[in-house]
Specification:
434 residues, alpha/beta, 30% helix
């Protein structure tokens, strides 16, 4: 993961003994399993239970959510909280002949550990963080690896394989206050990162120049360097961080392919220059349907309004948490929740505490239903548009951050503003039924 391990965790569940400064997926997964066990959360979970629909409907006692599972079971709920995250439905490219390939095709988000990569001829499609990491990881043992690149990415060099010293882990374990101070310090440092991405400054220019230097210093071949040079400002897209990619793509068994893919055949990929690339395995690092949020669930709110109707011009919410027309429904990491400088775990924690305000009021009987107003939502989103103007994400590149209406679906404020907006709900922004 290209987020430092000590900030890629929950504030209430610190882990002092990360093995690396940037942890692997398996270690992050184990951390979440440990959190589950530590807090006894397994008794609250139902796994392999896909929600396909949720409808706010009238009942004898008033209004309630009816939630339907894929197996037909229906559940009743007073509140629905969609903590479905941001990136979960893989985007599969529409490439002629892809289904005809006789080898294996695997999307990185649905990785199959039984897939054999050693000694194979591998194609990797996609140039985001995952594509870069996959090329770096598989190049060492592949017979040959081809990275098919439609648009190159700027890559910041960092020592991603750096181990966390055991002495540091032991110190943090023995002194929880020091560990908390480190965590808080990393959160404060996010303010520097916010300054880089949110407004033009000398810090932004310095980081952008570092991205250019990372390329110049590591790729000496002028032709390859030109192929790897994007036509947009560094940081405009979701920034890629790697300490090994530039080295890997220059190995004898690696190739950068910039010609357009014409078709996939049973034995490989044919590019627009007429060349056929013989392959055993195709890896799709082609990202996600980034603006699905809780979709493809069929969500129906008050007066029969569907989520697709409400979001016909793109996902919109109030402070990442609430949607007009959908009483007693909230989102964790909803629209605008991807952040360029703040850990998503931190955002999720703040949101969860914010939502507890309403759940407690429901529990004590002072509130039976709550719905954010259109006016408050429009005001918030107008502010987002204004705040997005000077950000680096709004400098002219085509990225998965862009919404259907070509607006940037990100959080355009710093951590302090997020903490303030997600402290205690302003009840004037809600319709409340007692």
């Amino acid at each position: 993961c290209d987020v430092p391990s000590q900030i890629y965790q929950f504030g209430f569940a610190p882990k002092p003994d990360w093995s690396h400064m940037w942890a692997s997926g398996s270690e992050i997964q184990q951390y979440h399993r440990d959190v589950l066990e530590r807090f006894g959360l397994d008794r609250y979970l139902r796994l392999n239970a896909e929600v396909v629909a949720a409808e706010y409907e009238s009942t004898d006692g008033g209004r309630q959510w009816r939630v339907r599972l894929a197996d037909g079971e229906e559940l009743e709920a007073d509140f629905v909280i969609c903590a479905t995250g941001v990136l979960h439905h893989p985007s599969i490219p529409d490439i002629p002949g892809l289904q005809s390939f006789s080898g294996e095709v695997v999307h990185t988000a649905r990785w199959d550990d039984s897939v054999q990569t050693r000694g194979k001829r591998i194609a990797v499609l996609g140039t985001g963080s995952t594509g870069v990491q996959v090329v770096s990881a598989l190049q060492r043992e592949a017979a040959h690896i081809s990275h098919f690149v439609r648009s190159p990415q700027w890559i910041l060099w960092a020592p991603m394989t750096l181990r966390q010293p055991r002495l540091v882990a032991e110190l943090l374990r023995r002194t929880p206050r020091a560990h908390d101070a480190m965590y808080q310090g990393l959160l404060v440092f996010s303010g520097v990162l916010a300054d880089v991405v949110l407004r033009p400054s000398w810090r932004r220019r310095a980081v952008q120049e570092y991205a250019r230097l990372s390329l110049r210093a590591q790729v000496r071949d002028p032709k390859l360097r030109t192929q790897l040079t994007p036509d947009y400002q560094p940081l405009c897209k979701r920034q890629v961080v790697s300490g090994t990619y530039y080295r890997a793509i220059q190995r004898p068994n690696a190739a950068l392919v910039t010609d357009e893919i014409a078709e996939v055949t049973p034995t490989g990929i044919t590019t627009s220059d007429g060349r056929h690339h013989e392959l055993d395995l195709i890896v799709l690092a082609t990202g996600f349907a980034a603006h699905n949020y809780m979709r493809p669930m069929n969500v129906v709110g008050r007066d029969g309004i569907t989520l697709d109707d409400a979001w016909v011009k793109g996902p919109k919410a109030y402070r990442m948490t609430a949607i007009p027309g959908f009483p007693n429904l909230f989102t964790v990491l909803g629209p605008n929740s991807p952040t360029g400088s703040i850990s998503l775990q931190y955002s999720a924690e703040r949101t969860s505490k914010y939502l507890l305000h309403w759940l407690r009021k429901f529990a004590d009987g002072s509130v039976s239903a709550v719905e954010v107003t259109e006016e408050a939502t429009d005001e918030f989103n107008a502010g987002v548009v204004d705040a997005m103007a000077p950000t680096v994400w709004n400098t002219g590149c085509n990225s998965w951050y862009l919404n259907e209406d070509n607006t940037v679906d990100l959080w355009p404020y710093d951590r302090a503003t997020l903490a303030k907006m997600l402290s205690v709900p302003d009840e004037r922004d809600y319709r409340i039924i007692h």
